[in-house]
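Friendly challenge for the regulars: who can give me the C-alpha cells for this chain first? No prize, just bragging rights.
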Amino acid sequence: MRRLGFAFNPTNDAAVHLRQRALAWCKTREVDGWAEPAGELARLRKQMPDTSALVVLGGDGTFLRAARAAAEANVPILGVNLGKVGFLSKVEADGFEPILEEIVGGAYSIDERMTLRGRILPAGGKKGGHEVFALNDIVVARGSLARVVRLDVAIGPSHVATFIADGLIVASPTGSTGYSFSAGGPILDPVSRNLVVTPIAGYLSAIRSVVASPSQIVRVRIVDAHEAVLSVDGYDDIRLNVGDVVEVSAREAPIRFVEPKSAMPFWDLLRHKVELLPS
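First reply, four minutes later:
Bragging rights claimed.
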C-alpha cells in the first residue's frame, strides 16, 4: 500500500475535512496520496493506475459513485462512513488514522464481492440498447407518477411471474442490505454469489422475493407502464419503454473490498448498523 486514493463527497464538510487529514497523514508517512470527488468518474479513472487502494470518504451514495472506477481498474476499495448508517463502510471517521496505519502495514485481507451487469434490449429488436454496471442493485420501476407497472419476469428459461407493482429490484449480495431489504428481501452474506429478485409493493403477488444462482440471467420485460425507468445503484435513471427488456446477470470480475484486521465482522456490523436505524 504505497499509493492511496481518496474519493470524497465534496458537498459534505466532514468529508472535505477528512480528505485534508488523509493527505496530511500520507505526507507524514511518505505514502503517495491523491484525492478526487467521488462523482468525477473520468478523474478517478485517470488516477487509478498504480493506486494500491481507494478509500471512500462519505456515505453509501458516495461509495457507490466511486465503486465503478475501482471495479474497472481492479483496485481494492474501503469505505469510511460519514453518512447516517453506511452499510458499505467498514470504518467510522473517528478511527480513520489507525485504520490507515493497518492497511499500509499490511494488516488487512481482501474480500471479493459480486457485481451486476445490466443490459437494455429495446422493444422490437431495435438497436441502441446499452450496458450498465452496479454494485448494489438494478431496479426497474415506475416513474414519478403514482401508477403501477406490469412486468414479466423470467429467471433463465423459466417464467417466474407477472408482477403488477411499483417495480422490481435485482440486487447483489452486497446490495441485499439496501433497497431489496426495505422491500422485504433477505440479507445475504456479502461474499456469496447470488441474485436477489424482489418486487416493490407487488399487488396480489404470491412471490415476495427469490434468490437465483449467479449462472442465471434475470429478464424483466415492460408489459404495461405509463412511465418506467431503470435505476442503477439509486443514482442513474434511464427511461424505458413498453416492450423493452432488461437483462441482469452476475459479472465475472468481482470488486475487491479491503477488510482491515480490526474491522468488525459483517454479521456483527449488520447488527450494529440495524440498531442505529430509527424504530
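Residues 149 and 172 are 23 Å apart (CA to CA). The first helix runs from residue 13 to 28. Your move, everyone else.
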